[in-house]
Amino acid sequence: MKIYNIALIGFGGVNRALTELIATKNSLWERDLGFRLNIVAVSDLYLGSVISPNGLDAKTLIEANFAKGGFGRLSGGSAEADNETIIKSAPVDIVVEATFTNPKDGEPAISHCRWALKSGKHVVTTNKGPVAIAAQELKALAKANNVHFEYEGSVMSGTPVLRMAEKTLSGAEIKGFEGILNGTSNFVLGRMENGLDFASAVAEAQALGFAEADPTADVEGLDVRLKVVILANELLGANLKPEEVSCEGISKLSPSDIDAAAKANSRWKLIGSAVRNADGTITGSVAPKQLPLEHPLAGVNGATNAVSLNTELLGSVTVTGPGAGRTETAYALLSDIVAIHNARSGSLAKDAA
Amino acid sequence: MKIYNIALIGFGGVNRALTELIATKNSLWERDLGFRLNIVAVSDLYLGSVISPNGLDAKTLIEANFAKGGFGRLSGGSAEADNETIIKSAPVDIVVEATFTNPKDGEPAISHCRWALKSGKHVVTTNKGPVAIAAQELKALAKANNVHFEYEGSVMSGTPVLRMAEKTLSGAEIKGFEGILNGTSNFVLGRMENGLDFASAVAEAQALGFAEADPTADVEGLDVRLKVVILANELLGANLKPEEVSCEGISKLSPSDIDAAAKANSRWKLIGSAVRNADGTITGSVAPKQLPLEHPLAGVNGATNAVSLNTELLGSVTVTGPGAGRTETAYALLSDIVAIHNARSGSLAKDAA
């Protein structure tokens, strides 16, 4: 049985949810997956950082109600989050990067990934920034250091779309995709179908905790754009940068647009898509589209996400599932660790029959 | 670069489609997947059998309009289909089993698989019979002979559901599933929603080639039952036999049932499902169910199939795609061969970053 020592970078909802899973599931994972996870270091801008070479108790980490700088009161702790030292020097196998997404330059998360990979540590992340902005560099670094860089959760939380394409659709020849990749905007569109105007629907999403105080990234398509870049680069072999993907959100849709769609047996959805052109180039876009009700994505409601992959040999294959959620996103990190474990330890033996 | 020598058992629509792909895609596969396929033997009840150790030309196999027993006129050919000799003695790496599904006892396909595995040959198959009826025995045989037994196409043609669960959802804790697993009955239900009675809808499906002369297996749920057994055994670790799964088809649904569902904002679907009970046992069932229109499976129309996996950590994840089709099913065979190739040759090296 294998124990992976891990460092949690960022201790917000996602890494807390992972810690909760570790507190309750380690024995199950040992039996079913062949490994346990041991939290050796945690770093968080608000709480500070801590390294405990023998491991921190997951249950205590969850239940202790740490105040600002609270990690400083732990043995091996500091009130400051010295991410660089933690990432470079903590004796861990895997760095779990779950800090905020910076859509501008991907920092500081890109640096976190870079430090970890250069130190010979695997990286698993749910952070869109490093994947959308620096995937090529980080994959090359991982390869050079013989470690993994895994990021299933950067697109649809735990719903597997990157690994589904890689592990189950090789040779199907993916030609393009279209997806509903932002739950907040999808929720807002649904409420507008129920009669609310855009501002009221956003206000309701905010009241319910689905939308942030500044909803721009969600409703103007910026979040979807990063996901389109990730999917296009991973699934279609593109090398797109975010600014190369056209981007229009849903804020200009009026109640009369919504009504007109309904009268035409259709429905507005914010669609992120990319397609391989005849000349081999890839074009990505984010825009509201009026889908006929029988379209496979028209029935994807609320905070659910979905991606339809258009393939040469198999036609359209769609995966639908949660696009957010603490535990759902923490599962993405687990699935990345499973992928690392299987690649490293006896997957040949296991796979043979 | 690797060449896999293969034997095609059954030369109906699916293996013909695979042969067409081989004729056109081998160079692409060599570049993108790392292997070529070389057809060394073919056997078919109607056409006879042929072994050609250096390989048969795929294009010729497709374009030659062989008459009954026609393989007998080829070098190394016989007008009789001696499957046992072909499978045991042809110098091949992989046996591609695509004969008819016998829902009663799985034969002769189970014997085909057994002979191949015992001869140290990998088996890929789209045949539900061996998987639903003899998977445990055949998996043990594969393991004992250090070869693979792969059967993605036994559930939803090339739409990956078995491999998706295995390769992308480890640790998500699948608790059950429900699916639309028969395109013919789904088509018939859709036509009944358009006003046809059951018999007329079936007649139309037959005229369009969606339903066979005897539609019993499709409309009475027998085909779905085999798929429920496969999914329950693979995804939930059950050990169900077909007769242990309750089975009710759609033939008793009347136009007034269809109307009543529509008035209740719902829709009848033939659902195959299984669930893990509190005591750890697994219950499978096939029955028409009235789904609310917002249910993720309610919008799956026509010949499309879908399975929703109910998971502990991730909630509901649904995969939707073709459930039939010559090329789509042939792709399942290719995806099985890709899985064998990756497990056998350097997936460790490839996966590391």
Automatic annotation (TrEMBL), chains A, B:
Q: In which domain of life is the source organism classified?
A: Bacteria
Q: Does the keyword Ion transport apply?
A: no
User: Which UniProt key words apply to this protein?
Assistant: Amino-acid biosynthesis, Methionine biosynthesis, Oxidoreductase, Threonine biosynthesis
The EC category is: oxidoreductase
Q: Where is the Homoserine dehydrogenase catalytic domain?
A: 160-338
Hydrolase recorded as keyword: no
Against Pfam families, the record matches this protein to: Homoserine_dh, NAD_binding_3
- The residues covered by the Aspartate/homoserine dehydrogenase NAD-binding domain are 10-152
Record's protein name: Homoserine dehydrogenase
Organism field:
Rhizobium laguerreae
The organism's taxonomy opens as: Bacteria, Pseudomonadati, Pseudomonadota, Alphaproteobacteria, Hyphomicrobiales
